[in-house]
Structure formats: C-alpha cells, structure tokens
From TrEMBL, chain A:
<feature type="transmembrane region" description="Helical">
    <location>
        <begin position="57"/>
        <end position="77"/>
    </location>
</feature>
<dbReference type="GO" id="GO:0005886">
    <property type="term" value="C:plasma membrane"/>
</dbReference>
<feature type="transmembrane region" description="Helical">
    <location>
        <begin position="30"/>
        <end position="51"/>
    </location>
</feature>
<keyword id="KW-0812">Transmembrane</keyword>
<protein>
    <recommendedName>
        <fullName>NADH-quinone oxidoreductase subunit J</fullName>
        <ecNumber>7.1.1.-</ecNumber>
    </recommendedName>
</protein>
<feature type="transmembrane region" description="Helical">
    <location>
        <begin position="6"/>
        <end position="23"/>
    </location>
</feature>
<dbReference type="InterPro" id="IPR001457">
    <property type="entry name" value="NADH_UbQ/plastoQ_OxRdtase_su6"/>
</dbReference>
<dbReference type="Pfam" id="PF00499">
    <property type="entry name" value="Oxidored_q3"/>
</dbReference>
<dbReference type="GO" id="GO:0008137">
    <property type="term" value="F:NADH dehydrogenase (ubiquinone) activity"/>
</dbReference>
Automatic annotation (TrEMBL), chain B:
<dbReference type="Pfam" id="PF00146">
    <property type="entry name" value="NADHdh"/>
</dbReference>
<keyword id="KW-1278">Translocase</keyword>
<dbReference type="GO" id="GO:0005886">
    <property type="term" value="C:plasma membrane"/>
</dbReference>
<dbReference type="GO" id="GO:0003954">
    <property type="term" value="F:NADH dehydrogenase activity"/>
</dbReference>
<keyword id="KW-0520">NAD</keyword>
<comment type="subunit">
    <text>NDH-1 is composed of 14 different subunits. Subunits NuoA, H, J, K, L, M, N constitute the membrane sector of the complex.</text>
</comment>
<feature type="transmembrane region" description="Helical">
    <location>
        <begin position="6"/>
        <end position="31"/>
    </location>
</feature>
<keyword id="KW-0472">Membrane</keyword>
<keyword id="KW-0812">Transmembrane</keyword>
Length: 165, 330
C-alpha cells in the first residue's frame, strides 16, 4: 500500500513538473505546478512529516501559487504576446543534458547520507519536537530567514507606496 | 502500516461523511429560505409537499437535469474543473474533523473521525485555502468581466482573512498546546465554564468574523454580490456545475460551524444530561442559524471597507491577542 501510494504520488509530481515546463500558456504551467506541490505534500505525509505536509499545502499550494495565478490573470497575457518557441524540444533536451552533472551530484549526496536503521522516535514529525528543535538548535538560521522575509515584505510595501509630493 | 480493515473502515466513514454532509448542505438551502422568509414575515416555499419540504427534491431534479452550458470563449478544461475543485476541497477538509465522541457499535469502538492527524487544525485550514482555486479558476476561465471581478475579490479577500483566522486561532492553540481537534475538545471537558470562549473571547469573535468571510456569507459576500457583479465568479455557470459551487459553500459553512463549536464552545463534550453527540448537533445547528440570521439582519459592506477592517483592525487585534495570551501563559 505504501509503495503504491508512493508510486502514485511520485507519478503525479513528475507529471506536474513535466507539464509545467512543456505547456505553452503560463496559466497552465502554474496549474500543473500546483499538481506537483500537492503531490509533494502527499509524499511528506507518507513520510510521517505531518507538519511539513500541512505547511506545504498552506504556504505553497494555498498562498504562493494563488498569487502567481492571480498576477498572471491580471497581466492578461494574450496568445500573441507569448514568445514563439520553434526549437523548444531541442532546447529542453539540451538543457536536460546540461543538468545531468548536477543531478549526479545530488544523487551522490543522497547516497552519502547515513542510513537510518533504528526505528524513529514515537513523536517523530509532530509539531512540538519540531518547534523545540527549530527554536533551540537552529535558532540563528531560523531568525535570519525570518529577517530575510521581513526585509522582502518591507521592500514590497516601500515599492508599492505612492510618492508623497 | 495499512491493513485491509483500516482501509475499509476509512472508506466507509468517508462515504458516510460525504453523503450526510451533502444531504445536510441540500437541506440547509431549504432551511435558509424558510428562516429568511420568517424573518421577513413571509412563508417561504409552501407548495411542494408539506410546508414545502419537497422543494428540496424539486430543486435537486432541476439542477441535475438543467443544460450544462459552457460559454464559447471559456477555457474549457479549466472552466469544467473549477466547480469540482470547490466542492472537493470543501469535503476533503472534513477528513480531520471529529464530529461526535467515540461510541461502540456491535462491540467495535468507532471514532467518528476519518483520519486523526496531529496537525488537524492546520490541515483543515490548509485545504480550505486550496479551495480558493475554485472561485479563482472559475472566474478566470469564464471570459466574463463579472466573473473576473468576482474571482479577483474572492482571492484578495480570502487570502487576507486567512491571515486573521490563522492568527486568531493561534491563541487558543498556545493555551492547549496541540493542533489536534480531539485534544482541543478534550481540554474543555469540565462543563460550560471550561469553554475556551470565556478565556479567549477576542479570538472567538475574530475567528467567527473570518469564518463568515471565508464562507462568502453576508455581510461579507462581496464575492458574489448580485447588485454589483451579478453572481461573481459563478455568473457563467449553470446546472450541476453551479450546484457544485453551492454544495461547496454550504459544506464550508458546516465545517466552520463544527470548527467553532470544537475550538471555542466545548465541542462534543456531554453537558448536564445532554449527551455529547446531541450537544454537537445543537451547537452546529445554532451556528448555521446564526449564519442565516446575520444574512437577514445585516447589509453588505463594500470590498474596500472589508479590506480596511481586515488589515487595520482585525489583524492587529489578533496579534495583540496573541501577545496578551503569551504574557498570561508565562
């Protein structure tokens, strides 16, 4: 059952990712990206990482992609505005080849990781141990990242302000 | 990890929940007409069946048999899938919601919850936020200005009010220390004095307001306000596709009612001599009635007023509430 679910979710994750690159209309690309993100959320749930699962749905599928689509909608992209892509398949193929070394690197890093042999702790993936870990061991990176987001937020507000004359 | 019995049990539960909630959603439309009618000194539907009770069936038949019109300029696949998204997300959100206390049937203990995950509250809110895609995609693909305006309003408002509902519910979570709705319910076992509404009155009000917004109910139904933008994102829809939006809206209403009852009003704990299951039903019915009552009593607000209230009043209030709760907990 677990394997079946994994294959099912991975299939949709890959399908969505593929669609996002291949599809011509930006809206369609964004929609197939949602499929990928939701499938990834399902994979997190399968790994018992329930908090990551919920956050993936809320933040990526619920908020970020909505804004993407919202903005695409307001830009009102017409068919004639889209660039002609005559050699798209060729470029995609070449791009794929260029990316192979990078993928090999990721794969090597993956296999270099120590294998987990003991059973996981009872409360693995629950919100309390995760929060404790974040706010003790990883406090500095956590705060730095939130600072980064704050900077982006303030920057957006500053740009959106009308100039007062 | 998965054995067949669990799978079968889950499927049965899911089917029951979907069937019951869908039926209740249909019934709620009838109740809505009746309640509104009595508040406006009318009789409401009277002709089909006793007290117009069979009006429900008549409406259902009408919805199912109506022609499914797809506008020529609409983007067809997106137009067709949008109402399905709206209805599905409304039902998927119910997977982590407990309805009744556990009970024994034929010597087998039944937990009336489809999946007890430890981030239930986050899950429900997350799935509800994915529900935005229903209105958004419907409005975008309809090739209609009213639809587009409705979709724009829907996205802006729901994203904004998600902030309020998320922040307001954080204070009760801090007090209880768990995101599981069962834990939240179990923290309020000691009668009416234990209800979180007394400890978190501000959070309760904020969450209720956000709930009204997220279900597109009056006074915040600017998304589909007839006098301004016809039917908003659903303008071009007909027949069962429109019906799916409608069922989704009422299912969302029920979910919000259940959530408010569990988080703030003691959930399904037994009260005095009333058993817990009945108590839950009473609370949810009260909330549904409140939704209708507010619709009959209050005028609409303008979208810009709504955004002003959201970002300049409700959000600061909910942050202040979190800070106060934090200090009180120290």
């Amino acid at each position: 059952m677990n394997d079946f679910l994994f294959i099912f979710l991975s299939f949709f994750a890959l399908l969505g990712a593929f669609g996002m690159i291949v599809l011509h209309q930006p809206v369609h690309s964004a929609l197939s990206l949602i499929v990928t993100l939701l499938a990834l959320a399902g994979l997190f749930a399968l790994l018992n990482a329930s908090f990551l699962f919920a956050v993936q749905i809320i933040v990526y599928a619920g908020a970020i992609l909505t804004l993407f689509i919202f903005i695409i909608m307001f830009l009102n992209v017409k068919e004639s505005n889209l660039p002609k892509e005559p050699n798209k398949t060729l470029y995609l193929f070449l791009g794929g080849i260029v990316l192979i070394p990078l993928n090999l690197l990721v794969l090597r890093a993956f296999y270099a990781m120590p294998l987990l042999r003991e059973p996981l702790a009872e409360d693995f993936g629950e919100i309390k141990p995760l929060g404790a870990e974040l706010f003790t061991k990883w406090l500095l990176p956590f705060e730095l990242i939130s600072l980064l987001l704050l900077v982006a937020l303030i920057g957006a507000v500053v740009f959106a302000r009308k100039d007062e004359v | 990890m998965f054995d067949t019995a669990v799978i079968i049990e889950t499927v049965v539960k899911a089917v029951i929940v979907v069937a019951v909630i869908a039926a209740l959603a249909g019934f709620a439309t009838f109740i809505e007409r009746k309640v509104l009618a009595f508040m406006q000194r009318r009789l409401g539907p009277m002709h089909v069946g006793p007290y117009g009770l069979l009006q429900l069936a008549a409406d259902g038949i009408k919805l199912f048999t109506k022609e499914d019109i797809i506008p020529q300029n609409a983007i067809k696949p997106i137009f067709m899938i949008a109402p399905v998204i709206a209805a599905t997300t409304a039902f998927v959100a119910m997977a982590a919601v407990p309805y009744f206390p556990e009970f024994t049937l034929f010597g087998y203990t039944i937990h009336p919850i489809i999946s007890d995950i430890n981030v239930a509250l986050l899950y429900v809110m997350g799935v509800a936020s994915v529900g935005i895609y229903g209105p958004l995609l419907a409005g975008m693909s309809s090739a209609n200005k009213w639809s587009l305006l409705g979709a724009a309003r829907a996205v802006v408002q729901m994203l904004s009010f998600e902030v309020v509902s998320g922040l307001s519910v954080l204070a009760p979570i801090m007090m209880i220390g768990s995101l599981s709705l069962i834990d939240i319910n179990d923290a309020q076992t000691g009668g009416i004095g234990d209800w979180l509404i007394w400890k978190q009155p501000l959070a309760f009000v904020l969450f209720a307001i956000a709930g009204f917004m997220e279900t597109n109910r009056a006074p915040f139904d600017t998304v589909e306000f007839e006098a301004e933008i016809v039917a908003g994102y659903a303008t071009e829809y007909s027949g069962m596709r429109w019906g799916l939006f409608f069922i989704g809206e009422y299912a969302n209403m029920i979910t919000i009612s259940v959530l408010v009852s569990i988080i703030f009003m003691g959930g399904y704990n037994a009260f005095w001599f009333i058993p817990g299951g009945l108590m839950m039903l009473l609370k949810v019915s009260f909330w549904i009635f409140l939704f209708l009552w507010v619709r009959a009593a209050w005028p609409h607000v303008r979208p810009d007023q709504l955004m002003w209230v959201c970002w300049k009043v409700l959000m600061p209030l909910s942050v202040v509430n979190i800070v106060i709760t934090g200090f009180a907990l120290l």
